[in-house]
Amino acid sequence: MRARAHRSLLTAITAASAMVLPVVSVVPASAAAGPDPQAFRQSVKAPAVKRHVERFQQIADANGGTRAAGTPGHEASATYVADKLRDAGYKVTLQEFEFPFFREVTRTVLDRVSPGAKTYVRNTDFRTMTYSGSGKATGTVQGVDLVLPPSPEPSSTSGCEASDFAGFIPGNIALIQRGTCNFHLKAELAQAAGASGVIIFNEGQPGEGADDRRILLTGTLGTPTTNIPVVSTTFAVGDELAAAGTTVTLTADTESDPHRKTRNVLAESRRGDPDKVVMLGSHLDSVVEGPGINDNGSGSAGILETALKAGALPTRNRLRFAFWGAEELGLLGSAHYVAGLSAEERAKIKLYLNFDMIASPNHVFGIYDGDDSDATGAPAGPAGSDEIEQFFESYFTTIGKPYTGTDFTGRSDYGPFIGVGIPAGGLFTGAEGIKTADEAAKFGGEAGVAYDKCYHQACDTLANIDDEALEVNTGAIATAAFVYAHSRTLPEAAAPGPTRPGTGGGGLGHDHDHSGVPR
Questions:
Q1: Do 295 and 460 form a contact (C-beta atoms < 8 A)?
Q2: 463 CB contacts (<8 Å, ≥6 apart)?
Q3: 134, 275, 348, 392, 511 from 431: Cα distances, Å
Q4: Do residues 138 and 249 lie in contact, with contact meaning Cβ atoms separated by under 8 Å?
Q5: Bridge partner residues of 282 (DSSP)
Q6: How far is CA 72 from the centre of its chain?
Q7: For the domain 101-257, what is the CATH code?
Q8: Residue 279 above 50 pLDDT?
Q9: Please, are residues 503 and 409 in contact by the beta-carbon 8 Å criterion?
Q10: How far is CA 310 from CA 221, 330, 352, in A?
């Protein structure tokens, strides 16, 4: 990323080299002789953050191993967070909303019958797409407008038009390639053509990390309107199933409830200018399959402890913390919140900072690329996002830690905010994407292995947390909250507009495919 001056936000960054994690002083130009960010950062202690993470694990253990939105585990998590914030003096709002709940009742099974029996491995070879229907489909696999071998650049339009299904034999299982249109459309067109099941496989172009379109695809159909089973696979599995005469059995037993309720937890400080809101957020829910301790107990714990220590600060600007519900089903909590804001309320939010998965075991230190200075994937964020990116770059440079850019794709809860022109930024340590050799040389860890091998699985437990990453990133969160809370000059937001979805794949593999956009 190119270097720039920090202009008005930062005037000095100093570090004490004797500490394992150097003490950082990031001083707003307006407060060089006033508030002390070093003292505040030191007050947000790693053991306290870890205790919140441990509590989320205990809650999951007591509630069937999950903290998914619409389940008792999420309700207990929300109650824990809300009680802590009230005790710290915040004005707490529990914002209820309705959402379409989804879970696998039993594990989905994908077996090849011929040529040669083969059982594919769930979460290695294939995954159930969110909002898949139920049923047992046995039949011939029929490819739909496939591009095999794949083109050098992503270009497949497989299953994007009704005409792609001309000649499709009802009762067959549709094999569709990732590309161009969203997964919901592909599945709905297949269902309309009489398919008994759908297999959507990755497109096949090689790449590094999140740009590798051969890895296991993760996705959602967006809404529970598809009645047949739908799974996603790696390119290799899809390529194998495309062989003439292949037959498979695909069995799924799922539950969708379009009227389940859950809550966002919103906490606002009682000090600072209410017309200048500095907002930090993390999603509080897990997937149904596991406790979600890295994804996203880590980010929730980091901003919770920051909030508890910031509650009594006499800040210049108002602090607002959000713990989102139903992120894992499509950024639903944050989208509900942003959609409910008036133009006047949106204008008061001067920036939004997002922290989703900040302690991955095979981590990198990812900073959202606010100005698209990496020139890859999604475009730049709204005006002012570049300043946030540079703030975090300077922080990591000062403490002697490497960092890398991660795409602003709209696939975590910053998406609805950038969609209405609010400057945004944040941190991310990687999900199911594969760490490259260059990243392993830069950050340590193991090349050729996922940043988080337990992403969206039952093994995303307390043992999945990297303590160093949690401590480093919490220090960055605390410093950012303090600096922006005291600054006279905040990023200038663009004119508010309608919410738009992200357009890329998940940065560093954080690819929930919330909107179904295939990239």
A1: yes
A2: none
A3: 28, 36, 32, 20, 8
A4: yes
A5: 323
A6: 22
A7: 3.50.30.30
A8: yes
A9: yes
A10: 40, 30, 17
Cα–Cα distance for residue pair 181/123, rounded to 1 Å:
24
Looking at 3.40.309.10, 3.40.50.2000, 3.40.630.10, 3.40.50.300, the CATH number of the domain 10-90+269-507 comes to 3.40.630.10
Strands of 115-132, DSSP E: 118-119, 126-128
DSSP 86: H
**Residue listed under structure tokens 């003490």:** 23
Q: Is 166 exposed, middle or buried (0-12, 13-18, 19+ CB in 10 A)?
A: exposed
pLDDT, tens only, 67-76: 999 999 999 9
For residue 47, the tally of other CB atoms under 10 A from its CB is: 9
| pLDDT score of 411 | 77
Domain ranges of the chain: 10-90+269-507, 101-257
401, two tokens: 């830690």
Coil/strand/helix, residue 41: helix
Full-prediction pTM beyond 0.85?
A: no
Min mean pLDDT across 170-179, 380-389, 418-427 is at: 380-389
Question: Which tops the pLDDT comparison, 319 or 492?
Answer: 319
Is-contact 184 223, C-beta < 8 A?
A: yes
User: Phi and psi of 328, rounded to 5°?
Assistant: -70, -15
Say which amino acid occupies 96.
Answer: E
Per-residue pLDDT averaged across 122-133, rounded?
Answer: 95
Containing 498, the helix (H) or strand (E) segment is none
Taking residue 416's Cβ as centre, other Cβ atoms within 10 Å add up to 26
Which of 143, 142, 139, 179 lies closest to 160 in space, CA to CA?
179
Catalytic residues: 327
Asked if residue 164 lies in contact with residue 185, where contact means CB atoms within 8 angstroms, the answer is no
Q: How confident is the model at residue 438 (pLDDT cuts 50, 70, 90)?
A: very high
Q: Tell me the C-alpha distance between 406 and 60, whole Å.
A: 30
Which amino acid appears at position 267 of this protein? Answer: A
For residue 115, count CB atoms less than 10 angstroms from its CB and return exposed for 0-12, middle for 13-18, buried for 19 or more: exposed
Locate tokens 């270009």: which residue? 155
Q: Among positive and negative, which fits the CA dihedral 439, 444, 446, 451?
A: negative
Give strand pairing partners of 102. 256
Interatomic CA distance for residues 294 and 301, integer angstroms: 10
List CB contacts of 405: < 8 A, sequence separation 6 or more. Answer: 1, 366, 367, 368, 369, 373, 374, 376, 389
Q: Enter the DSSP assignment of 208.
A: S
Q: CA-to-CA distance for 304 and 323, rounded, in angstroms?
A: 9
